[in-house]
Design goal:
Blueprint lengths: L2 H4 L17 E3 L10 E8 L5 E8 L2 E9 L5 E6 L7 E5 L6 E4 L6 E7 L8 E3 L4 H22 L7 H25 L6 H4 L16 H15 L4 H23 L10 E3 L5 E3 L7 E7 L4 H17 L4 E7 L4 H10 L7 E3 L8 H5 L6 E5 L5 E4 L3 H12 L2
Parallel strand pairs: 2-8, 12-13, 13-14
Antiparallel strand pairs: 1-4, 2-5, 3-4, 3-6, 6-7, 8-9, 10-11, 12-15, 15-16
Helix pairs in contact: 2-3, 5-6, 7-10
């Protein structure tokens, strides 16, 4: 569960060397450094297990310290940290029991848990971020297990319904994170919480006020943890989000024309995108081999039927490389509109680079003049945008 969090923050991690007391193994002892943190644990059922503190780097986890618990699951780990950052505490030798820790020099962290709830609801104390982490872990674990249950139903419900339910499940996690960042922007655990303010799936339905939240955290980090990799990385990340959001607004303002596409349909006849001017057009990049694309098909068909008599059509661009598979998928999914094209080059097609996407399904909505007014619309967001367009 928690492993997913770590992948979002590799650039925020610190690689560090340290020197430990006798009960902790010194991972890199070429230089003796003064101990500046302590992690004391009491893990019921964790007797004689080894606990590893690791920094997260682009090359993978880097050892910082490790210690073996006594027969009752108690341990004390000490060492030296160069600054605040994101670390992980791993229990045992597998990667199944890991929790994130935003350890700060001079922290004296206490962890109470059982082997079973170590990654679900550990009780942390002793630092100014420990309480926040304990609360977040419980909320996140509830979301995680509900998400697992939801995904077991993905073949039984539509993509639209799946998206709606996922968003509803995520609300408590994101609401908690945003509120905590606003209330205490200097809290080190905001490294983890900042994911709630990050547009991980594009800017559709993303709240631009999150930029203000992230900037508050950046300002607090730069004052409280100046020159640390974590503070600098979060500042860079926030700057990129702000610039990308501005570009997104510009790209979807209806002032930039969609690049021309001129490809053959299944009958070998060239069909240009520009030939559809005068209609609202959804450019739908998909493929017969793309599961999410095929699961989205019923929603696209439904919306096409709803708005086709009001000046709306679809220009489907397939990233297939097999003509027969492409034609069979069109028939099987009931994609009744006449505008189907492909260069049958799969990812060797120049179109992903031309339109700036790396995954499908990917959509671009253009107005009657051929200018872009929406990008990445799917499921509920596509329905909302079309409702907005045709309600004017």
């Amino acid at each position: 569960m928690i492993n997913k969090i770590f992948g979002l923050f590799l650039l925020l991690a610190l690689v560090s060397c340290e020197e430990t007391k006798p009960e902790s193994q010194n991972v890199q002892d070429s230089e003796k450094l003064e101990d500046n943190f302590t992690i004391a644990g009491n893990i019921n059922g964790g007797g004689n297990l080894t606990f590893h503190l690791e920094a997260l780097t682009e090359q993978g986890p880097a050892k910082v310290a490790e210690v073996k618990a006594d027969g009752n699951g108690k341990f004390k780990m000490t060492g030296n940290l160069p600054g605040m950052g994101l670390y992980q505490l791993r229990m045992g030798e597998s990667n199944e029991k890991i929790i994130p820790l935003t350890v700060v020099p001079n922290d004296n962290l206490n962890i109470n848990a059982t082997v079973d709830n170590f990654i679900v609801s550990p009780e942390l104390s002793g630092t100014d971020w420990a309480s926040t982490m304990s609360k977040y872990m419980k909320i996140y674990s509830d979301f995680h297990f509900a998400q697992v249950s939801l995904m077991e139903q993905k073949d039984e419900i539509s993509n639209l319904e799946l998206t709606k339910r996922f968003k509803a499940l995520k609300v408590p996690v994101d609401s908690f994170a945003i509120a905590e960042m606003r209330a205490n922007p200097g809290n080190a655990f905001n490294i983890v919480l900042s994911d709630a303010a990050t547009p991980n799936m594009g800017f559709i339905d993303w709240d631009p006020e999150n930029i203000d939240v992230l900037n508050r955290v950046c300002d607090a980090f730069n004052k409280k943890y100046p020159e640390t990799v974590a503070a600098l990385s979060l500042s860079n990340k926030t700057y990129q989000i702000e610039m990308n959001y501005r570009q997104h607004v510009k790209n979807t303002s209806g002032t930039l024309p969609a690049p021309e596409i001129a490809l053959n349909n299944p009958d070998g006849v060239e069909l240009k995108l520009s030939s559809l001017k005068g209609k609202y057009v959804l450019i739908d990049f998909w493929a017969s081999w793309c599961g999410p694309c095929r699961r989205e098909s019923p929603n696209v068909v439904r919306l096409y039927n709803k708005y086709k008599d009001r000046g709306f059509t679809i220009y489907s661009v397939s990233l297939d490389d097999n003509m027969e598979a492409w034609k069979a998928a069109i028939k099987s999914d009931g994609l009744a509109w006449p505008n189907h094209v492909s260069d049958l080059l799969k990812w060797n097609s120049p179109l992903p680079q031309l339109y700036g996407f790396t995954g499908i399904p990917h959509t671009v909505l253009i107005n009657k003049e051929g200018n872009v007014i929406g990008v990445g619309l799917r499921g509920e967001s596509l329905e909302q945008k079309l409702n907005e367009v045709f309600s004017k």
